[in-house]
Amino acid sequence: xxxxxxxxxxxxxxxxxxxxxxxxxxxxxxxxxxxxxxxxxxxxxxxxxxxxxxxxxxxxxxxxxxxxxxxxxxxxxxxxxxxxxxxxxxxxxxxxxxxxxxxxxxxxxxxxxxxxxxxxxxxxxxxxxxxxxxxxxxxxxxxxxxxxxxxxxxxxxxxxxxxxxxxxxxxxxxxxxxxxxxxxxxxxxxxxxxxxxxxxxxxxxxxxxxxxxxxxxxxxxxxxxxxxxxxxxxxxxxxxxxxxxxxxxxxxxxxxxxxxxxxxxxxxxxxxxxx
Length: 275
Fold this sequence. Notes:
The protein is α/β, with parallel strands linked by helices and 275 residues long. It contains eleven helices and ten strands. A five-stranded parallel sheet has the order 3-2-4-1-5, with helices on both faces.
């Protein structure tokens, strides 16, 4: 059937590919990937002979048109990434939105994901979690993003590059507190590494160890404790300068996992005091 096939590929160990993924890659009329050199290793391992074409953030606009034309002409197009599931922390979602809008078939061939794999071996609660991907590389923006996540009552998942790991951990400690966490790298490979401890322990390890490779960071949820009015007021002062009172109440209520009615009442008191 013509359409777009989102195919998950191994995150390290090439044996971690599904039979269905191999079948789809074999019958696809075209296969688009991030990096031909990386994907060719997988294809060579399984004897798949296909011309690989690049799809990445630098050529995405033009290639989306090309893929749409291919599918409209009845072709089966497969999308893969260097490792794991396409569209997770990559530009693939825009392609999928384009194909859906045009009314064509889109399906997923599920498989490995570094975030889910790290979560399952973390020993940290898995019933509810938020995947935040890569935080902003700029310090001020990254701190603001973390601050927004501080009261989210779930496990948090991040990706981070090795050269930013220490600073990212320091920012997590500053705004989330010294929570239990796990650092994972080289998942499914021979030298898979999993470091567990408090964020401060992991910072000390990363600071004193030459770190290489991309990390998945798993952080435990905040302790279940009563949120004080003072904490809510402090956060409201930070956001009210940029947004309306009703929007501020909604945002802060969601961040602290408290009722919107309570936060709105505090907002009104603040407004009354200012008047």
